[in-house]
Each structure stands twice: as structure tokens, then as C-alpha cells.
Design a protein that fits this description.
By secondary structure, this protein is mainly α. The protein has one domain (about 1-395): Glycosyltransferase, CATH 1.50.10. Helices cover about 50% and strands about 5% of the residues. It is built from 15 helices and five strands. It has helices at about 1-20, 55-65, 70-75, 80-85, 95-110, 115-130, 155-160, 160-165, 180-185, 190-205, 245-260, 265-275, 325-340, 345-360, 385-395; strands spanning about 130-135, 140, 170, 220, 225-230. The strands form two sheets. The protein has a three-stranded antiparallel beta sheet, with no helix packed on it. A two-stranded antiparallel ribbon has the order 1-2. β1 and β2 (about 140) form a beta hairpin. The longest helix is centred in the first third of the chain and has 18 residues, at about 1-20. It is globular and about 50 Å long. The mean pLDDT is about 95.
Length: about 400
């Protein structure tokens, strides 16, 4: 593990150097070369930005690994832009404010203790809390809360469901944005942040978690808070069981418990993790959607894409429809569960995931930006899958805790 970690940490250093002062949302690619078309990548100011901070999150783990102060300097150079987003344009945020600011402001505050950094994190939590819809008890996922579309959004993107179908919508991914609210409440912010986080977590338990311990991706409410039913924008279909959606819930509920010590959250995390791990392949990966019909390609973002480059009807290509990022998130979630409760099955499953992913799915080529192969059911590498396998490996190497 230490030898593999050394290689991974060198890749993180290489990525920091290649990013330099121009940190953007670099999307996943098949070959893991994230920075090739930098000019096409959106910047932190864009309302649509959500994956940018997985790079600063990996930098956090890099610092814990080698204590190189230059890593903190690299992270701090982006303070002005992160600060401006939530102070000057707080409406230009979506529910993924948690992903953006937990892995930047909270992480950097843990390393430096600087008051300015904490204030940025608290301001981000306030922007996230303002997305709470009391009628329905949920944090709205997408779009501005006043439903206007920023002028810089392209006409093509403005027609996307992220804007046209955003009213009354909550999605399971938001379980990993709740930690920002819990942290802020403890760090001196408004106590209502934690109450909002609990309300959303309880809503998710009520409407997202099914009797078989699978979860839906999205749920819609009427304007008066009346529950209307499941929606799907990431899994195969309504009623299907998108693996990474289950993963977000598992880790999210484990963290909810760590802040609140309210047993229902740990119970939920443990149940969902047990369900997930029953679907593990021998190599630690899982099918992109547990309900994906045989010989059917994955459909990233809930819709067919033109970038499918292999024939799913060819049996040798069946492995391509796995999502290792889901397994990496669940591995982090199980590590959190096991900090609070013994569970022999989950402990064994965690070892299976860690061994399987590190032996079969890591890209250790230092000239390639990506780290974790075969994500999203279409053989991509992404910064978020990379981040979670790094966090999991660090906590397997030595219990370093978590940022969230």
C-alpha cells in the first residue's frame, strides 16, 4: 500500500503543477488526461461547477502524507475566487456547494485554522442553507432559487434539465453536501444549518430509500410540498438502482451520524452498505446500475451519449459497465461506519473493495492525470472517483479521519 500511495501522491503533485494557477472543473475522460482542453472547462464562477474541488481535496491528503508546505500555498492561491463566489454571487450556486467548499474551505481550514478560510466556509453553508424549501423539507438540487438563468450560461445548457426541470427537485447526491452544514453549525455558524441538514436527511430516508434498501436518484415535490414521486437523471430509469446514488447515501448517512449521534442515520448507512456490498464483483467493482438490463450500455447523466466506444453485446466488454467510483465512495462510507460500530460483513467487504480496486483499477502511470479507471459505466476516469479512492487509501494506510 505504501508503494502504491507513493505513486498516487506523485501523480497528485504532478496534477497540481499542471493545473498551476488555473484551477477549473476538469471533466472525466476515457484516457484520464483531464487538462487537455482547458479552455473549454468552466471555472468556479459558473453556477454549473461542482467537481473543481476534488483536486484541492486530493491536495489535502497529499499534505497529510508528506507535510509539504508548498501544497498549502497552492491551495491558498484560489482563496479570492472561492470567496467571491459565495460573498458576491451566492445565488450562482447549486446544492453542490457542499462538494465545492467542504473539499476546499473546510479542508484548508483544518490545515491552517485561518479565520478568513473559516468565514468562506460559513458563507458557503449559508448559500447552501438558502436552498432549503421548507414546504417539503428538502434542499433544492439545481438552478437558481429565483429560477433566472445566468447570462453566461450557453443557450444549449439553458435547455438542459438542470434548469428546465429543477423546481421542486431533490437528488440523493445532496447527502454528501450536508456535511458542510453540520460543520458550519459546529464552527460558529447558524445553528439552523444543522437542523436543515437533518430535515433533508430525514426527507431522504422517507422518500428516497426503498424497502429493499436501494435508493432512487431524485424525487419531486409540488410547490405546496406535496410529494409527487421518483425521478431519474443519473440511473438507468425510474425505479432502477443507480450504484453511486446508493454510495452517496451510505457515506452521507454515516457522516450524519458522526455529527448528530442519532442512531437512525448509522442504521440507515449500515443497511444501505449491506445492500450495496451484496452486489460487489470479485474485483471490488459494481455494476453502474444494479438494475441495468443485460447487454445494455450505461447512460451517463440519465441519457444516451455518443461517446460509447465499445459493443456491450460482446461478452468480453461486460466489465465496462462497472462504476468503480461508487465502490470508492462506499469504501469511505464503510470506514466511517466502522469507526462507530463493528460489522464483520462490512469489514470484509471493505477489504475486498480496497484490494480489488487497488490491484485491478488503479492507473499508476505518472504521465496520466487520472487515478481510478472504469468509472461511470463507460470506462472513464474522473476527479471525484480519484478523490474517494485517495481518501480511502489514506485511511487504510493510517486512520487520518475525513475532511467532511
Amino acid at each position: 500500500m505504501e508503494e502504491v500511495l507513493q505513486t498516487v501522491m506523485q501523480k497528485i503533485k504532478n496534477n497540481m503543477a499542471e493545473i498551476g494557477t488555473d484551477l477549473r472543473e476538469f471533466p472525466g475522460t476515457h484516457d484520464g488526461m483531464y487538462f487537455r482542453n482547458r479552455e473549454r472547462c468552466i471555472e468556479i464562477e459558473h453556477i454549473f461547477n461542482w467537481t473543481q474541488s476534488f483536486f484541492t481535496g486530493m491536495a489535502y491528503w497529499s499534505y497529510l502524507y508528506d507535510k509539504d508546505s508548498r501544497t498549502i500555498d497552492w491551495m491558498k492561491q484560489f482563496l479570492d475566487r472561492y470567496e467571491a463566489k459565495v460573498l458576491k454571487t451566492p445565488m450562482e450556486t447549486m446544492h453542490d456547494t457542499g462538494f465545492l467548499y467542504s473539499l476546499y474551505a473546510v479542508a484548508l481550514y483544518q490545515l491552517t485554522g485561518e479565520e478568513r478560510v473559516k468565514k468562506i466556509g460559513l458563507s458557503a453553508a449559508d448559500a447552501l442553507a438558502n436552498r432549503f424549501v421548507s414546504k417539503g423539507g428538502y434542499i433544492r438540487a439545481w438552478g437558481r432559487m429565483d429560477d433566472t438563468i445566468p447570462a453566461y450560461v450557453s443557450p444549449e445548457l439553458a435547455k438542459d434539465h438542470f434548469f428546465t426541470e429543477s423546481r421542486g427537485l431533490a437528488i440523493v447526491d445532496c447527502m454528501m453536501n450536508l456535511p458542510l452544514l453540520f460543520w458550519a453549525a459546529e464552527a460558529g455558524g447558524d445553528a439552523r444549518y444543522a437542523e436543515i441538514a437533518k430535515a433533508h436527511a430525514d426527507m431522504t430516508l422517507q422518500y428516497f430509500v426503498r424497502e429493499d434498501d436501494s435508493v432512487c436518484h431524485a424525487y419531486r415535490f409540488d410547490e405546496d410540498g406535496t410529494p409527487l414521486g421518483e425521478e431519474n437523471y443519473c440511473g438507468f430509469s425510474k425505479g432502477s438502482r443507480w450504484a453511486r446514488g446508493t454510495a452517496w447515501a451510505i457515506y452521507g448517512y454515516a457522516i450524519c451520524y458522526s455529527y448528530t449521534k442519532e442512531k437512525r442515520y448509522l442504521d440507515a448507512s449500515e443497511r444501505l452498505a449491506t445492500f450495496f456490498c451484496k452486489h460487489l464483483q470479485g474485483d471490488g467493482a459494481v455494476l453502474w446500475d444494479f438494475s441495468l438490463p443485460p447487454e445494455t450500455p450505461a447512460i451517463p447523466s440519465g441519457k444516451h451519449q455518443e461517446w460509447m466506444t465499445w459493443d456491450i453485446t460482446d461478452k468480453k466488454n461486460e466489465s465496462h459497465v462497472v462504476d468503480t467510483s461508487a465502490s470508492a465512495v462506499v469504501l469511505c462510507g464503510i470506514q466511517e461506519i466502522l469507526r462507530h460500530r463493528e460489522n464483520a460483513f462490512l469489514e470484509k467487504s471493505a477489504k475486498q473493495i480496497l484490494t480489488g480496486l487497488t490491484e485491478n483499477y488503479l492507473c499508476l502511470d505518472k504521465d496520466v492525470n487520472g487515478i481510478l479507471k472504469c468509472q461511470n459505466g463507460n470506462e472513464t476516469m474522473t476527479p471525484y472517483g480519484d478523490y474517494f479512492i485517495v481518501e480511502a487509501m489514506m485511511n487504510a494506510f493510517g486512520d487520518y479521519g475525513r475532511i467532511w
